[in-house]
Write a structure and sequence with these properties.
Elements lengths: L30 E6 L2 H11 L8 E6 L1 H8 L8 E5 L4 H11 L7 E6 L4 H9 L4 E4 L4 H10 L11 E7 L6 H14 L5 E5 L7 H4 L8 H5 L7 H7 L1 E2 L4 E4 L17 H10 L2 E6 L5 H9 L2 E6 L3 H17 L7 E7 L9 H8 L6 E3 L2 H10 L3 H4 L4 H14 L13 H9 L1
Parallel strand pairs: 1-2, 1-3, 3-4, 4-5, 6-10, 6-11, 7-9, 7-10, 11-12, 12-13
Antiparallel strand pairs: 8-9
Helix pairs in contact: 1-5, 2-3, 6-16
Length: 422
């Protein structure tokens, strides 16, 4: 019999796909072959193969269903995953028994069928089928099923990547990224790492008052050495829940990278850290585009002027087209209310982009300037400042979590704690 891993289907009882904005971990480099009965299912599988989470998988689609699969593997090795569409019931078990005689050990099977029958599902699972998905299927159904084979339920929250990028240079995207990451780590108590991808001019080390001897450059220039232990040595600990993968911020070398230069680093971080915040520099290259498209959630930071509006609109259009099965990107306005500067208000931004900003952060040069010069976060200078609350709200939207920080007590709290101890 084929050696399968059991996997419960996540299709809803009526057969409609589950929401597209839940976290789905990307699949590793695996081979997937689909044998479809209908053109509609073949189109859904083809669309799934273009999803970012299956970008490393090698997908091949054939028509003919179960019979074609049995015939194909009589003379060829089986892939890591086989997707089978079947329109009947009686032929499923007979076909699976025949397929078992020609399959390699370790191959996993996903069956797409039209019968919403619990008894059928249980029998398929008993025979070792990994997942049963009810037709008609969408692309996200296929993505969720394939990716689910290579992740465990307890690991679902691990490796969420949040990319923060400025719509234009100088809009404070790095400052927003660092303060939001601080809120995720401190207020939501999620172990997080900030990866400063601006190797030449990155400011994360300054903002967190860190000067580590090693950082992300050591990893990107030594891809063969990248593993969990190596990355751990490069991390600089900022707080109990926040670490930093700092940029060298030197001009001794030119930082020209290929599109896949950061893949191994991000893949390794995914396996060991629940939340990764990418501080992406304002430049357009193969690797910055790849990092944005591959992120789980995206925050665009814009100033309230025409150039930022145009660039935000362009980024939104590109990301929506490149990520049809993902949540919409989010954006916030920063440096709002500079005296005597004409501005485009949030309503006009929302009308043009067809989505409102999640926050409008006011211009406060005294507060932000002091934080930058002192190597502090806004929350460290003033925990009650309105911008501190905005960063927490942004962190909650990006992670889907509520605040877990203990409420602040009164000035008598230390005395009460001593009395309780006695």
């Amino acid at each position: 019999m084929i050696s399968y891993a059991r996997q419960n289907t996540e299709a809803q009882p009526d057969g409609t796909p589950a929401p597209a904005d839940d976290h789905i971990a990307p699949a590793p480099r695996v081979s997937v072959q689909a044998f479809c009965e209908t053109v509609e299912t073949a189109a859904a599988v083809q669309s799934a193969g273009e999803d970012r989470r299956l970008s490393k998988a090698h997908l091949k689609i054939q028509m003919g269903g179960m019979a074609a699969a049995i015939e194909a593997y009589r003379t060829a090795p089986t892939p890591n995953v086989i997707i089978l569409e079947t329109e009947g019931r009686d032929d499923i078990f007979t076909g699976l028994d025949q397929l078992a005689t020609v399959c390699d050990s370790g191959t996993r099977v996903i069956v797409i069928g039209r019968l919403n029958d619990v008894a059928l599902y249980r029998e398929l699972i008993r025979r070792g089928v990994s997942d049963y998905v009810l037709a008609p299927v969408s692309a996200i159904d296929v993505v969720r099923s394939v990716c689910g084979l290579f992740s465990t339920p307890e690991a679902r929250a691990v490796g969420r990547i949040i990319a923060v990028v400025g719509a234009k240079g100088g809009v404070g995207a790095s400052t927003i990224a660092h303060n939001v990451a601080w809120a995720i780590a401190r207020d939501l108590t999620v172990d997080s790492v900030v990866a400063d991808l601006d190797l030449a001019f990155g400011t994360a080390g300054l903002d967190y008052n860190q000067d580590p001897p090693q950082g992300i450059a050591d990893a990107v220039f030594s891809p063969d050495r990248v593993d969990i232990a190596f990355i751990d040595r490069l991390l600089s600990k900022c707080t109990d829940h926040l670490s930093l993968l700092a940029a060298p911020a030197t001009l001794e070398r030119v930082y020209d990278f290929g599109a896949e230069a950061f893949d191994s680093i991000l893949d390794t971080l995914r396996t060991s850290m629940p939340c990764i915040v990418l501080d992406i520099p304002h430049q357009w290259s193969g690797w910055t585009r790849r990092a944005l498209v591959a992120a789980d959630d995206i925050l665009i930071v814009a100033a309230p002027d025409l150039a930022n509006l145009r660039n935000t609109k362009n980024l939104f259009d590109l990301l929506k087209a490149s990520r049809p099965n993902d949540r919409m990107p989010l954006y916030c306005l920063n440096q709002v209310g500079i005296p005597k500067r004409p501005e485009i208000n949030a309503g006009e931004f929302a009308k043009a982009i067809e989505s409102p900003p999640i926050a409008s952060i006011p211009f406060d040069p005294q507060m932000f300037g002091s934080a930058a010069n002192n190597g502090q976060m806004i929350a460290e200078i003033s925990d009650s400042h309105r911008t501190t609350e905005m960063f927490l709200q942004i962190a909650q939207r990006l992670t889907g979590r509520s605040e877990t920080k203990k409420p602040r007590g009164s000035f008598l709290s230390p005395l009460f704690e001593k009395l309780r101890a006695k």
